[in-house]
Specification:
62% helix
Length: 52
């Protein structure tokens, strides 16, 4: 007897991965916005890139 795929588990794992990526993207966007607010145009950020 062959083992059967557990499709509901695979779907659950895929959804978790998507939620994690979405949350990371949201955090990056928030960090980018807060850095942009703190720095005035022409200043250099910690990464060494200038904010225009």
């Amino acid at each position: 007897m062959l083992a059967r795929d557990n499709y509901s588990y695979k779907k659950y794992q895929k959804e978790l991965t998507q939620k994690k990526k979405k949350e990371e993207k949201k955090q990056k966007k928030l960090e980018k916005e807060t850095i942009g607010v703190k720095l005035e145009p022409g200043q250099v950020s910690d990464e060494g890139t200038s904010v225009v």
